[in-house]
Amino acid sequence: MPIMKTAIKLIILLLILVVLILYIFNIPDNRNQLNVSHDNVSGNSVKNFLNNVSNSSTSIYVHPGESIQRKLNNASADDIIVVYPGLYMENLVVNKSLVIMSKPGELTETVIEAADPGSDIFYVTADNVTISGFNVKGANGGINFKGSNGIIYGNKLTSNEYGICLSKTHNNIVENNSASQNGDGIYLSDSSSNILENNEINNSSYGIRLKNSTDNELIFNTAESIKQYSLYLRNSSNNSLYYNRVSPGIGAENGICLENSDYNSLVSNNVSNNWEGIHLSSSSNNELSKNVVLNNYFSIELLDSNNNELLDNTVSSGRYSWEIILSNSRNNILKGNKAHLFVASKVYSGTNSTNNTIEGSVAKKL
Predict the structure, then answer these.
(1) Which of 158, 280, 339, 353 has the most neighbouring CB atoms within 10 Å?
(2) Could you report the average pLDDT of every consecutive run of 10 residues in the chain (366 residues)?
(3) pTM of the model
(4) Which residues neighbour 338 within 8 Å (Cβ) at sequence distance 6 or greater?
């Protein structure tokens, strides 16, 4: 009888072990899910699309000394315009569905400088436009995109008031672009459901800035040496910021700022060595989880912001700096935030911050 009881216990333990193993191996990995979903609409599919159209026998070619705008005017909708490397002094208006790309495989660059620096180099009003492979510089705007369902891929944007601007548009892919020495690297105004992925912005006033824009995805972007904020959302809701990296250069720049922006998700971003890491002002119902926010003077600050969730972030600071600050902010949930292994991040809460759920003790009342 004792042997039978022992066998039954062993069987039960084995069943429990099997269940645990199955659970562990089926825990969803957000990052892998994100990559799979976006490979379907961008990434390799964009590269394959550009490779296929570049080999089209019906492409219209532009050589140095010729006018790109003239070829655009004479083209029909859905034509492919391939521009050979060289210097072109033009401001281009794109009012029909076209693929406009530099000729791949060349050693030199295809540079477009503004003939009129007060105007945009690419001014796009049509849907289904692709712009790829250009070095765009010296204008009010590098690429001003007012059409939808377009692709802006693999461009360099330098010394413009803004590198890329999306205005009142949706469902565009902005990927693998490099923007430096601009006012705004990438600026979205009144735009929704766009994907901004793998872009690099540096030495600009703002990295990526959103105003009155919803349901956009900012993924794997890098911002360095930004004077104002690397990622800045104003009056913008339901946006997803995943796996972005804010890496300051010389000086104390600012990381991520949400102003009057609700229901956004900030997940697995790296924001370190800034003056302000993540700052929320009058922003509620946002999720901040699994971010790495290290060695900022103000790491995470909530000002007049309610009903936010701060979960499982890694937040630590130096001796004379602040980790998590709650100022006039209520009904927020702070759980699992660590300075390092097994040590909770310090929370500084103002007397007017009430009804917050804080795991661990409050370091200091302000």
Answers:
(1) 280
(2) 55 50 38 34 66 75 96 96 95 97 78 94 97 93 96 94 96 96 95 98 94 98 92 98 85 86 98 92 98 91 97 85 93 92 84 90 63
(3) 0.85
(4) 312, 313, 314, 315, 344, 345
